[in-house]
Write a structure and sequence with these properties.
Strand content: 25-35%
Helix content: 25-40%
Largest sheet: 6 strands, mixed
Shape: globular
Radius of gyration: 19 Å
Length: 267
């Protein structure tokens, strides 16, 4: 198994607060890797480090055999596409113009806008079903529509590795499944996809490689069918559950038990 992207003994901090210490992790090539864990466990922090947005205070993020910090920004953006947890569009920009910004890493003085760029943008908008929104202002869209626009921008970059931080945020259930199906399709076509997800059952259904975190540490990683157990769910989320086969996919399906804190309503 090969790994173009990995973290080598990294310590991650925000200001003076340490989020993770001596963390090492490898992303399998051509995998759909999903990172799960409770709130504030370090999932998004790890993704930011892998994308070069957060520099480790110790250790290195390695991309294609070299320290990612040594790569020019445009070169990194040709290899990694990132959907951050929150993004802000310039005021007054249209959907088509924002998605087109995904082609910026491929532009240079000698290489201006081309038919290949036009095609990449059109295909990204079609894949996320926003073609009919092309002329609309991003400011006028709903939260779910805006999220699909940002995803289209990342797809337009046409990078071999995609990093997505909670990509299903703001999406209704139908669009969540549609997006996850799209990510699975991209993965089958050879792309490496890394996503942070909150919905554990979605993670189990779609991930080819699952990483479970708690308090900045890796609790388990591997195929969902091999690592997802009632004990892991309890260790990661402090939740008692029953694991049954998903009737659609056959992957682990987590059924939470009634919380011990549940109080019966007064009669």
């Amino acid at each position: 198994m090969t790994h173009r992207l990995h973290a080598d003994a990294v310590t991650l901090k925000y200001d003076e607060r340490t989020v993770a210490t001596d963390l090492s992790i490898s992303i399998p090539d051509a995998s759909l890797t999903v990172i799960v864990g409770p709130n504030a466990c370090g999932k998004s922090t790890l993704l930011r480090a892998l994308s070069r947005l957060l520099k480790p205070s110790q250790g290195k993020i390695i991309l294609d055999g070299g320290d990612i910090a040594s790569l020019p920004a445009k070169e990194t953006a040709r290899r990694l596409g990132l959907l951050p947890q929150s993004s802000t569009a310039p005021e007054g920009i249209t959907v088509a113009d924002l998605v087109a910004r995904g082609r910026y890493p491929h532009q240079s003085f000698l290489r201006q806008w081309s038919e290949a760029d036009e095609l990449a943008v059109a295909q990204a908008m079609e894949a996320t079903r926003i073609t009919e929104l092309a002329g609309r202002l991003v400011d006028e869209l709903s939260g779910g529509q805006r999220q699909r626009v940002w995803i289209a921008l990342v797809l337009a970059q046409e990078t071999p590795i995609l990093l997505l931080d909670e990509p299903t945020t703001y999406l209704d259930i139908a669009h969540q499944i549609e997006l996850l199906d799209l990510l699975a399709q991209l993965n089958r076509q050879g792309r490496t996809v890394v996503a942070v997800l909150h919905e554990l059952n979605h993670a189990c259904r779609y991930a080819t490689h699952l990483i479970a975190m708690r308090e900045g540490a890796i609790l388990a990683q591997g195929k969902p069918s091999e690592i997802v157990t009632e004990q892991l769910v309890k260790d990661a989320f402090e939740l008692s559950s029953i694991i049954i086969p998903d009737p659609v996919s056959g992957t682990p399906l987590i059924v939470p038990k009634r919380s011990t804190a549940h109080i019966e309503p007064a009669v």
